[in-house]
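Researcher: Let's do a round of design. I'm pasting the structure tokens now; please hold your answer until I've finished.
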């Protein structure tokens, strides 16, 4: 069952986990192990995926051991990404926080508490099989934050160097109105069960298993640029405020060249912006 689970998820990894699959059963040489799956997520972050059928097989400690290997083998991982996804993907890898995704039949209470004490980014995901349908459930995560930006500075995770400018620096430079608008949006997004905030260099990602939304700030234009993963046919779009992003870019509707690529994934999306408009995307009745 464990091998069947792995093969099924690898064949559908981008749709199920928001991760572009790179390689299976990757041997780590002198480290003495074999990583179940390696991939690159929609934020350009390297991901180790480990699978276990039962809940008592040390899947978390195994993933942490492979993460130690990954920290010392950036070039090897970049070569895999270049071979499978091309030069652009390899050049834009985000090494600030590689992730571990542990997929198992169940996790103990102690597992979910333990990941909160670990400084690395770990997602715990359970699976269920109903006849011929496989479902995944997001159980716990470490490495994100649910801190509200209202009433304080946003220096957390700020880049050490002056260039390139980080999303937190853009937030610091924003007007009071734009900060308040972002705080409203942040509160709204985090009010949904299981959504976590993960700041990237150029944008802020809100995610469960996959990204739910990404937010970018443009202080000079007094704009928030929000990419939402939803079907534009199910919402009412407002001219000058929101638009259908399915046809954005050549060959990939979510593709955005440059280091601030907002999202990759399904061919559905809605893009909204403006500090003057405090309504968000309106569902069709």
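Researcher: That's everything. Go ahead.
Model: Designed sequence:
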């Amino acid at each position: 069952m464990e091998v069947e689970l792995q093969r099924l998820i690898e064949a559908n990894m981008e749709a199920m986990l928001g991760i572009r699959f790179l390689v299976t059963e990757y041997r780590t040489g002198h480290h003495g192990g074999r990583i179940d799956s390696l991939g690159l997520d929609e934020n350009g972050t390297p991901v180790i995926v480990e699978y276990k059928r039962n809940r008592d097989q040390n899947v978390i400690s195994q993933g942490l051991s492979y993460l130690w290997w990954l920290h010392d083998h950036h070039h090897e991982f970049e070569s895999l990404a270049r071979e499978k996804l091309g030069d652009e993907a390899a050049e834009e890898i985000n090494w600030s926080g590689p992730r571990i995704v542990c997929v198992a039949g169940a996790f103990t209470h102690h597992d979910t508490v333990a990941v909160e004490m670990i400084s690395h980014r770990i997602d715990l995901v359970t699976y269920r099989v109903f006849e011929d349908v496989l479902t995944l459930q997001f159980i716990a995560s470490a490495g994100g934050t649910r801190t509200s930006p209202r009433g304080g500075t946003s220096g957390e995770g700020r880049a050490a160097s002056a260039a390139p400018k980080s999303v937190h620096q853009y937030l610091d430079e924003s007007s009071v109105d734009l900060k308040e608008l972002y705080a409203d949006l942040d509160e709204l997004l985090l009010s949904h069960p299981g959504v976590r905030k993960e700041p990237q260099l150029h944008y802020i990602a809100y995610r469960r298993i996959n990204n739910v939304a990404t937010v970018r700030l443009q202080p000079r234009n007094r704009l928030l640029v929000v990419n939402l993963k939803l079907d534009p046919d199910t919402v009412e779009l407002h001219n000058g405020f929101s638009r259908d992003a399915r046809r954005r870019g050549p060959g990939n509707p979510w593709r955005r060249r440059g280091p601030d690529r907002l999202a990759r994934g399904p061919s559905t999306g809605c893009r909204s912006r403006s500090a003057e408009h405090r309504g968000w995307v309106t569902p069709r009745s």
